[in-house]
Q: What sequence folds into this?
C-alpha cells in the first residue's frame, strides 16, 4: 500500500510508465507509447483494462491438485473425466502446459512446478511445487511421470533432481525427447541439439 | 460498459491478453507473457498497475490553451513566466513536445495538434486541434509559429496546410529544418533525406 500512496503524489504519466516498464519485454520507450495510447484511446478502454488486471489476480488461483492456474478449483483438466489420471506430465510453467495442450496429443493430467531449479538465483527445490508432487504420488494412483521441463541447464537439472527423488516411488519416470526439431535443417542446428539428437537415436 | 459486462463472463486470462494486445507494440505473445507475469508477481503490483491506469485517464486532461496533456490546466509550460508566449511551436503529439523539451533549446510555448492530416484515414483538418490554434492567434499576441510536424508525408502536408491557413494572420511562419542527422554518414542516408539536405543548403 505504501507504493500506492507514493503513486498518488506523482505525475500519473511518469508513474504509469514506471509501472508498465516492470512488465516482461517492456522498456521505457514502449511503456511511454502505451501510456500515451491509453490517453488517446478514450477512458472506457483504460477502465476495462484496469478492471481486467484486477479480475485476473482476484479470480485466478492455483489448482490445489496440479498447481495449474484456474478460476475453479480443481482446474478443468483435473476435472475432465476423459483424461487419464494415472499419467502426470510435469512442466515448469503454465505456458508450457498450454503448449502441450495445443498438440491435442496428450490425454493425461499435469503438475506445474512454477519454475526450474536455479540454485545461484536462489531457486532451490523448496521454492518449486515439488513437495506437492510427492504428496500426489502418495495419495493418487499414478503410473507414469513424464518430465517435460525445458531442455535447458535449469530444466535438465530439475528433471535429474526429480528423477532421483522419484526413485523411492513405484512409478515409471520418463523424459520428453530432445533433438532436431521437425522441419529443421541439420546444417543450421546448434551443436548441443545435434549431439542430443545423436545420443537419443532410436531403431527404425 | 457493455465491454466490461462481457469481460466478467470470460476467462480472466484470455480477457486480459485480448485487452493488452490492443496496446501499441503488444502482440498476442507478449500480452500472454505480461498476463502470466502479473499472476506471478503478487497481487500488490497488479493492483498498483490497475490504479495507475485509472489515475492516468482520470487525472490527465488537455491544457485548454496549448492542448498539451496535463494534470493542472493551464499546463506548466503555458504557466512558466520564463517562456516567451510570442513563439508557438506546433507539434503533432505530446511525445514530440517532450523530445523538443529534452533539447533544452526552446524557450517558447507549444500547440499540440494531436495528429497529422491523413485524409485517406479520415483525419481531416477538423479532427486536429487547428481551430484552437487559429483562435489562439486571434486572442494572443503571437509573433512566430514554428511548424514542427514530422518530416513525413502526413507531417509535411499538415505543415503546408497550416502555412496556407496562416497566411491570413500577421505572423511569421517557419518550418523546422530537414536534412542529414548529426553524426550521420552520407553513404547510409536515404535518398529523400539527402535531397532535402541539398535543397535546404545554406551559406556558410
A:
Amino acid at each position: 500500500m505504501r507504493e500506492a500512496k507514493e503513486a498518488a503524489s506523482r505525475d500519473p504519466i511518469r508513474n504509469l510508465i514506471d509501472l508498465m516498464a516492470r512488465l516482461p519485454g517492456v522498456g521505457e520507450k514502449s511503456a511511454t507509447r502505451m501510456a500515451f495510447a491509453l490517453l488517446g484511446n478514450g477512458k472506457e478502454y483504460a477502465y476495462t483494462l484496469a478492471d481486467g488486471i484486477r479480475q485476473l489476480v482476484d479470480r485466478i488461483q492455483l489448482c490445489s491438485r496440479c498447481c495449474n492456474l484456474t478460476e475453479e478449483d480443481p482446474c478443468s483438466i483435473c476435472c475432465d473425466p476423459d483424461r487419464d489420471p494415472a499419467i502426470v506430465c510435469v512442466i515448469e510453467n503454465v505456458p508450457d502446459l498450454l503448449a502441450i495442450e495445443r498438440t491435442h496429443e496428450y490425454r493425461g493430467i499435469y503438475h506445474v512446478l512454477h519454475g526450474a531449479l536455479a540454485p545461484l538465483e536462489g531457486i532451490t527445490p523448496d521454492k518449486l511445487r515439488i513437495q506437492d508432487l510427492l504428496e500426489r504420488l502418495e495419495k493418487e494412483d499414478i503410473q507414469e511421470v513424464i518430465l517435460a521441463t525445458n531442455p535447458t541447464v535449469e530444466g535438465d537439472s530439475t528433471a535429474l533432481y526429480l528423477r532421483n527423488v522419484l526413485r523411492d516411488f513405484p512409478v515409471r519416470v520418463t523424459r520428453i525427447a530432445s533433438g532436431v526439431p521437425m522441419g529443421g535443417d541439420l546444417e543450421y542446428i546448434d551443436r548441443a541439439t545435434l549431439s542430443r539428437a545423436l545420443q537419443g537415436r532410436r531403431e527404425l
In short: The radius of gyration of chain A is 22 Å. Chain A has nine helices and six strands. Chain A touches chain B through 52 residues (CB under 8 Å).
